[in-house]
């Protein structure tokens, strides 16, 4: 703690030691070391009795400008927290030689404060302090004046530049702006460091749409002037002798240059200035495109930075928030180890190469799955989706991800991998083999993915753990990827919509009708759909992409990216360094679990709610629809098996088969494909007074939904110094930069198989030797050296 004395209702006088007050303090009290300027003002209003509603206050501190044990007090205007904290720190450290804080407080009516009087008050205070220091005949007072004169005589690059600058800025020419607006520049304003001063000058000129040039920038002073030679505006801000702060001493003239602009880039708006503006934007969103940054800056300042400047600002902001790219690899293994310690059961697998140093390995990839996600997956549907995206950071690579689906079809982020290799075959094989052994277990699963050759080959290998021939897995195509991979030769918007409609039909009648319509529209598209995914001995493979031929393995899930996009759960993840990438997956997974745990907590299990809210709503809607159906005929095949014909309101008839030795089914196929009874089956249940809840698949249970999101994430310590000791090997990246070229933002996009890409026309080229078209000089008959080399080999 430190003492504070508050002086009010008096006047400042010039004494032998500089500025003093002609009345004793109105109040004194001990203050905490961490008190802020806002807390101080509230305390002043409380102790002095000044009406806060009718008045504002000007606070000035009695500052000792002398050194070496001498005293020369001046008044220091305090109008922002940075100046107040500097004063407190100097007092606590005894740097000023004075152990008490003396504050001179002026009460200013609010009606007066609205008329530029705060600036005038500050001007009078500064003039008073300057007069006290200049007219004092005391030895200590002369020291302050002599120090200022000594500073003016310091040469710059062999010339008396500093003396010239200070002589140009006289008291009559200096102006004072409002000290209470932090966006303005005024005489007496203090800055903790040179960077803060530069930023304030830039921000002021950008807002005013004026331009400046720097005459001198160094540890002793900062001098700028207007870029327009006809404008005489100049700012002079020297630093304290020990460089602890900078203060604007003089501002010469006013800007008379033109400030008309067209919203284009500002010459003083550098990329490092923009990076400070967008730190919160990057921190909240995880990423921002250069275009978004341009729009963000335009909203603040009315000018649009260039695309290149916005891109560099984003890279700098990412580095400031998440660290350097190469250093991030050094933190990766210790951070994953800290997660494993905080969340037992978390799985991590490394893909690396050996180096000369046995304690360092060359990074090729890492896969991880958090323990709460592994535990939650046990209560999900037996369906997963896998996908990948490019990493467009400094070292490139790809990110692989596997997600599961809960009882309501919501995505559960299950497992991740960051791969450096460009070999997709090896990357997917390594990731899926680890996924089977360590994460999902041996149970048969349906896998939804795109049609990459590297993924397709997994389901054809008997030792991959995902061989479809023995029922280890059931592979299905994502309908979204299917539509995006339609060859461009006959791809149209109407055709894509028609394919999506056909793929999602559960009735064979509607599926065949849609296929006929595709054949009538475009025969090539029809033939392509028939042959998609077929083996040499197969005529068609509709089960891979159509719901009606699926067999119920995909539980009605048609797209890997349905209502929730996989990578939208992790915004901007492609742009981050490797450790920040892993951290984002942990943070967003924890947020997803917390958010959905809260949402599912509203399920009333105590009131015997059997199914999730979504499934309950579907059953209620189908029961209402079933009330409009009627039973046409019943055929009993045995005592426990019946075949019923149900007619809908539109006079469409469906056949329902019910029995205890087989799964209840309907000709509409909804019960078989999704595990949820259709309205036709519910109509029969109502007719026979059968409880239809026994016909719903257990994967949709309310208790399973609650158990899915129940596991808790436990974050590791935020500081690397607090992480558990890591005794394993270190991993170093392959320092191979991304290819040079125009800056591009790599966004998620489907990987179209090479065999579906239509080759473009071959460009005609001529030989450099014989000038003939159709071959290059390497294959030219005149190139005897190349031909001789070829023949010898």
TrEMBL record:
Keyword Zinc-finger among record annotations: yes
Domain of life of the organism encoding this protein: Eukaryota
Region called Disordered, residue ranges: 129-174
One GO MF term attached to the UniProt entry: zinc ion binding
Keyword line: Metal-binding, Zinc, Zinc-finger
Domain spans labelled SWIM-type: 654-689
Record field: transmembrane: none
SMART domains xrefs: ZnF_PMZ
Keyword Metal-binding: yes
Name of the protein described by the UniProt record: SWIM-type domain-containing protein
Organism field: Rhynchospora tenuis
């Amino acid at each position: 703690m430190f003492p504070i004395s508050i002086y009010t209702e008096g006047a400042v006088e010039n004494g032998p030691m500089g500025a003093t007050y002609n009345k004793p303090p109105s109040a004194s009290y001990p203050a905490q070391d961490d008190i802020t300027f806002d807390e101080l003002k509230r305390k002043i209003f409380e102790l002095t009795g000044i009406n806060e509603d009718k008045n504002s206050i000007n606070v000035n501190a009695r500052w000792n400008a002398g050194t070496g044990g001498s005293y020369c007090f001046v008044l220091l205007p305090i109008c922002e927290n940075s100046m107040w904290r500097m004063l407190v720190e100097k007092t606590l450290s005894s740097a000023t030689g004075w152990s008490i804080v003396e504050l001179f407080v002026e009460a200013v009516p609010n009606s007066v404060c609205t008329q530029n009087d705060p600036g005038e008050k500050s001007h009078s205070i500064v003039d008073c302090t300057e007069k006290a220091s200049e007219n004092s005949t005391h030895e200590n007072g002369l020291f302050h004046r002599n120090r200022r004169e000594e500073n003016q005589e310091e040469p710059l690059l062999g010339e008396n530049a500093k003396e010239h600058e200070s002589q140009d800025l006289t008291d009559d020419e200096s102006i004072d702006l409002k000290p209470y607006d932090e966006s303005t520049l005024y005489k007496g304003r203090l800055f903790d460091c040179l960077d803060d001063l530069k930023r304030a000058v830039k921000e002021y000129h950008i807002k005013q749409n004026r331009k400046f040039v720097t005459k001198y920038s160094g540890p002793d002073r900062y001098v700028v002037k207007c870029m327009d030679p006809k404008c005489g505006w100049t700012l002079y801000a020297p630093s304290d002798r020990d460089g602890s702060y900078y203060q604007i001493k003089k501002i010469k003239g006013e800007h008379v240059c033109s400030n008309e602009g067209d919203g284009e880039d500002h010459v003083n708006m550098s990329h490092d200035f923009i990076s400070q503006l967008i730190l919160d934007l990057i921190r909240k969103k995880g990423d921002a495109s250069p275009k978004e940054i341009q729009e963000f800056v335009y909203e603040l300042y009315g000018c649009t930075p260039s695309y290149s400047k916005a891109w560099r600002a984003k890279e700098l902001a990412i580095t400031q928030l998440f660290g350097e790219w190469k250093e991030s690899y050094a933190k990766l293994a210790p951070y994953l180890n800290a997660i494993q310690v905080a969340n037992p059961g978390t799985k991590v697998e490394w893909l690396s190469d050996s180096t000369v140093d046995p304690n360092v390995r060359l990074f090729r990839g890492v896969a991880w799955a958090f323990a709460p996600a592994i535990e939650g997956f046990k209560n999900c549907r037996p369906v997963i989706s896998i996908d990948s995206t490019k990493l467009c950071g400094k070292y490139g690579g790809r990110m692989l991800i596997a997600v599961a689906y809960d009882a309501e079809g919501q995505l559960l982020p299950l497992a991740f991998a960051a791969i450096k290799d460009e070999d997709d075959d090896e990357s997917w094989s390594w990731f899926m083999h680890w996924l089977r052994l360590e994460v999902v277990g041996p149970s048969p699963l349906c896998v939804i993915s795109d049609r990459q050759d590297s993924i397709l080959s997994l389901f054809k290998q008997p030792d991959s753990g995902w061989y479809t021939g023995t029922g280890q897995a059931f592979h299905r195509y994502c309908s979204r990827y299917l539509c995006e991979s339609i060859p461009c030769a006959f791809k149209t918007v109407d055709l894509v919509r028609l394919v999506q409609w056909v793929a999602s039909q559960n009735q064979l009648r509607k599926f065949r009708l849609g296929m006929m319509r595709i054949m009538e529209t475009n025969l090539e598209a029809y033939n392509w759909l028939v042959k998609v995914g077929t083996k040499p001995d197969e005529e068609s493979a509709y089960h891979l992409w159509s719901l009606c031929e699926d067999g119920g393995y995909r539980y009605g899930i048609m797209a890997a990216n349905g209502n929730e996009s996989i990578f939208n759960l992790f915004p901007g993840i492609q742009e981050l360094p490797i450790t920040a990438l892993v951290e984002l997956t942990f943070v967003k997974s924890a947020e997803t679990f917390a958010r959905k745990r809260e949402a599912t907590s509203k399920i009333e299990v105590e009131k015997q709610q059997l199914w999730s809210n979504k499934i309950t709503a579907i059953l209620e809607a189908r029961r209402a629809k079933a009330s409009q159906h009627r039973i046409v005929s019943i055929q009993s095949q045995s005592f426990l098996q019946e075949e019923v014909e149900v007619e809908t309101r539109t006079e469409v008839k469906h056949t329902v088969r019910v029995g205890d030795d087989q799964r209840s089914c309907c000709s509409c196929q909804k019960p078989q494909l999704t595990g949820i009874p259709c309205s036709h089956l519910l109509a029969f249940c109502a007719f026979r007074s059968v409880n239809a809840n026994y016909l719903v698949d257990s994967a949709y249970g309310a208790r399973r939904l609650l158990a899915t999101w129940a596991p808790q994430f436990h974050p590791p310590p935020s500081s690397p110094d607090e992480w558990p000791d890591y005794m394993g090997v270190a991993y170093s990246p392959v320092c191979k930069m991304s290819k040079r070229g125009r800056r591009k933002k790599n966004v998620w996009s489907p990987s179209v198989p090479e065999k579906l890409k239509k080759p473009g026309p071959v460009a005609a080229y001529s030989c450099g030797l014989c000038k003939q078209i159709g071959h290059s000089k390497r294959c030219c008959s005149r190139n005897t050296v190349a031909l001789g080399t070829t023949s010898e080999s």
